[in-house]
Amino acid sequence: MKKNVRLFVLFVLLALVVGACGTPATVAPAPVQPTEPAAPAATEEPAATEEPAAEEPFRVAVVMPSAINDLAFSQSMHDALLRIQEEMGGESMFEIVYSENMFVVDDAAAALRDYASQGFDLVIGHGSQYGSSLQEIAPDFPETSFAWGTTVDTFGLPNVFAYEAASDQGGFVNGAIAASLSESNIIGVVGPIETGDAKLYVDGFKAGAEAIKPDIDVRVSYIGSFSDVALASEAANTHVSAGADVLTGTAQMVVGAIGVAEENDVLWFGTQSNQASLAPSVVVASQVYHWEGILAEMIDMIKGGTLGGQSFIIDLANGGEVIEFNPEYELVANVNTVAEQTIQGIIDGSITIDLGQ
Amino acid sequence: MISDLFSVTVLVGILASGIRLATPYLYAAIGETFAQRSGVLNLGVEGQMLLGAFAAFYVALTTGNLGLAVLVAMLVGAIMGLAMAFVTVNLHAQQGISGIGFYLFGLGMSDLLFQKMLGTVETVRGFPRIHIPVLSDIPGLGQIFFSQNLMVYAAYLLVPIAWFVLNKTTLGLKIRSVGENPEAADSLGVSVAGVRYFTIVLGGTLSGVAGASLSIALLNVFQQNMTSGLGFIAVALVYFGGWRPWGVLGGALLFSMVNSLQLWIQVLGIPIPSDIAVMMPYVLTILVLVASVSRVRGPSALTKPFERED
Q1: C-beta of residue A163 within 8 angstroms of C-beta of residue A290
Q2: B193 touches chain A (CB under 8 A)
Q3: What was the pLDDT predicted at A37?
Q4: Tens of pLDDT along B260-269?
Q5: How distant is the Cα of A264 from the closest Cα of chain B, in angstroms?
Q6: FRET pair for A356, CA 20 to 30 Å: which of A51, A118, A243, B212?
Q7: How far apart are the C-alpha atoms of A170 and A324, rounded to whole Å?
C-alpha cells in the first residue's frame, strides 16, 4: 500500500509540473546572448569585447492575465512591446520577458517579485487585479520601476506608474458607426464582468449609439466570465434571436461570439485588438490599443531617473487608441463620414462622452 | 418587462440555445456516468475535453476532414482514459486527486500544443447546421429541434443508447455490479480491472468528443482553457442525474435552459443585476441537488480502489 501511495504522489507531482509548464509561467523569449554585434574575431570572450560601444539593453518584464495571442487585452500589450523592441533595435537593445495566463493573482505576485529581484528596469503588472500585489512589492525594490493598469492609481509611490485606456472613446466611435449601420435598431453587446475596462467600453459604446439614434435599443449581457467561450457564443445567439443585427463585445472569450456573428451574417465591432482576421466578412472596425506611446514615455522617464509617480492614459487624441477599419468590409460613404466626424469630434473635444450614471 | 419573457420568440430561443448548451455536458456526463457506475470517479474530464477540443480543431484545420477530426479527438480522449485507468486501477491511486492531476495535465498540454502548433486564435469550418427538410420549417419546433448540427443530435442519441447498455445488457450488468460490489463480481468471474478499464477509456473517449463538439461544431474556434469549468459541471451533473442517463439528460437540460433563460433576462433588459443572473443556473442546481440528495444513492464502491485478495 505504501509503495502505491508513493507512486501516486510521484504521479501527481509529475502532472502538476507538466501542467505548470504549459499554463502559467511560459517565459519567452529567453534572454539571448548578443551574438550578432560580437566581432567575428572574438570567439572566446564575447562579453568583454565591446564594453565601450555596447549599451546595456533595457529590460522589461510583464505579467499578463491571459495569453499573448488572445486577440484582446494581453495581446495588445505584447504587440506594443514588440513594436518598441523593433524601434529600439532588436533584442540586444530591448529585452522582453513575460509570464502569461496568470489568472491566479498569487502566482502573478510571485512572478512580479521574481522579476523585480532579477533587476529588470521595468516590471509591468498588466491587469488591475495585480494592483494590491504591486503596492506591497514596489517599496521593497526602490531601484526598480513598476507599471500597472488599467488604473490611474500609483499609490503615491515614487517607483510606480499607472496606465489606463479611455476605452469609452473607441466604444463611442464603434457605437456611432454601429447605430448608423443597424437596420433593426437593435444592437447586442456581450461583456465579461460588469467592471473596469469592459464596463467603460460598453458604456461608451451605448452612449455613442444613442448619440446617433436616440431611440436605438442597445442590449447588454454580461456572462460573468472572461474565459467561457461557449456561453459568450450563446449570448450572441440570444442577441441575434432577439433581433440584433449588429454585435460587439469585449475581453478574450468573445471569439465565440464573433463566430456567431459570422454564421448569422451580423456585423461585429471589436475592441482591444484587431479582430478582423477571425471573421473578415462581418467585422467592421476594431478599437485597437497601442500602448507603445505611453510605454516609450515611461522608458524615457526611467532612463532620465524618474521611476514612477505618474499615471498615463491612452486615447484617440494621443494615438494610443486607434480605430482600425477592416479593409475587406466596405463601409458606406455616409457612415464613413459619421465615423470620421466622431473620431475628430472626440479628438478636438467638440464631442464629450456622457456615460450617464 | 417580465412579461416579455413569455413570448414565442423567447421561449423558442431559450429551448434552442438550451439544447445547444447541453450538448458538451451530455457527452462528458454520459461518459462519466459509465465510469462512476463502475466505481471510478474521473475528475480529469475537463483536461480530456481540452485535449479533445484541441486535437479535433487542429485536424479539422489542417485536413478539413471533420470525421477524422472527431476520430482523433476520441483517440486522444481514449489515451487519456487509458492513463487514468492505469493510475486508478493498477496503482490504486486516490481517484479525486489523480483526476485533478489529469485535468492540470490536459489544461497545460492543450495550451502548450496550441501555442506551439497554432500560435493564435483562428476559426475553422466546423459541422454545419442541418436543416431537416419540412420539419425544420415548422414554426418554433423547427428551430428548436430540427436545425441543429450533427454533433448535437448525436449527443441526444447517446442518452437512450447509454440507458440501454447500462440496464439491458450483460455488459451493463457487469459495470453496475463492479460499481456496487466488486468483491462479489470478482468471485463470479467478472474482471473488475477489465470492466473499469473499459468504462474509464469510454469516459475519456466521450470527453474527447465533448471537447470536439465545442471546437468544431458549436464554436469552431480553439482558445486556451476554452472549456472553462464545463468538465467539472459535467461531473456534478452525474450526481445530479442520480447516475442514470435520463437523469443526466434532465440535469444537463435544466442547467442549460436556466443558463439561456438568464441570457434572455439580460438581453430583454429585465432589471436584475448581471451578477445575480449569472448565478442562477448554479444556485438552482445546488437547490435541486439538496432536494434530491436523500432519494438517490450512488454506486457503493465509488472512489474505492479494488484490491483482489489472493
Answers
A1: no
A2: no
A3: 41
A4: 999 999 988 8
A5: 12
A6: A243
A7: 10
* Mean pLDDT within B69-97: 95
C-alpha–C-alpha distance, residues A53 and A42, integer Å: 15
Range A167-288+321-348 has CATH code 3.30.43.10: no
Q: What are B96-149's pLDDT values in tens digits?
A: 899 999 999 999 999 999 989 988 888 899 999 888 888 888 887 888 888 889
Whether A313 contacts A166, CB under 8 Å: yes
Contact A241 B223 (CB under 8 A): no
Q: Is residue A256 predicted with pLDDT exceeding 60?
A: yes
pLDDT > 90? residue B36: yes
Q: Which of A9, A66, A221, A240 to mutate to test the interface with B (most CBs of B within 10 A)?
A: A221
Contact B219 A222 (CB under 8 A): no
- Work out the number of other CB atoms within 10 angstroms of the CB of residue B136: 17
pLDDT at residue A38 is higher than 50: no
Of A100, A46, A111, A48, the C-alpha closest to A73 is A100
Bond preceding residue B169 cis, omega within 30 of 0: no
Are A221 and B110 a contacting pair at CB < 8 A?
no
| Inter-residue contact B144 to B136 (CB < 8 Å) | no
pLDDT for A46 equals 44
Do residue B223 and residue A70 have CB atoms under 8 angstroms apart? Answer: yes
**In angstroms, what separates the C-alpha of A301 from chain B's closest C-alpha?**
34
From B220, B263, B269, residue closest to A259, measured CB to CB? B220
Residue A187: pLDDT band by 50, 70, 90 thresholds? Answer: very high
The answer to whether residue B101 neighbours chain A at the CB level (below 8 Å) is yes
Burial B90-107 (b: 16+ CB within 10 A, else e): ebbbbbeebbbbbbbbbb
Whether residue B18 contacts residue B259, with contact meaning beta carbons closer than 8 Å, is answered with: yes
| DSSP code string of B136-178 | GGSTTHHHHHSSSBHHHHHHHHHHHHHHHHHHHSHHHHHHHHH
Say how far apart CA B191 and CA B210 lie, in whole Å.
28
* Cβ–Cβ below 8 Å for B221 and A15: no
Res. A25: pLDDT tops 70: no
**Which residue type does B271 have?**
P
Contact check, Cβ <8 Å, A21/B112: yes
Is B224 close to A66, i.e. CB distance below 8 A? yes
